[in-house]
Design brief:
With 59 residues, the protein is α+β, with helices and mostly antiparallel strands. The chain has a two-stranded antiparallel sheet. The termini are far apart.
Length: 59
């Protein structure tokens, strides 16, 4: 998995698997806005390879 080997340790890029975006899509349609800031703040634990996170979309 080359993406995981580069994105996680070298770029610090969080990868979110199986995100449920149905509610987000409904809110976007309701507001008529499809641009937002997505924030993800996983805990800083050295060597961590997976943790549940709570992504937050800010309009």
């Amino acid at each position: 998995m080359p993406l995981h080997r580069v994105a996680l340790p070298m770029m610090g890029l969080p990868l979110i698997d199986a995100a449920e975006v149905d509610e987000l899509a409904a809110v976007c349609a309701e507001l008529g806005r499809y641009a937002f800031l997505l924030t993800v703040a996983p805990p800083r634990i050295h060597g961590l390879t997976g943790v549940p996170v709570n992504p937050l979309a800010v309009f």
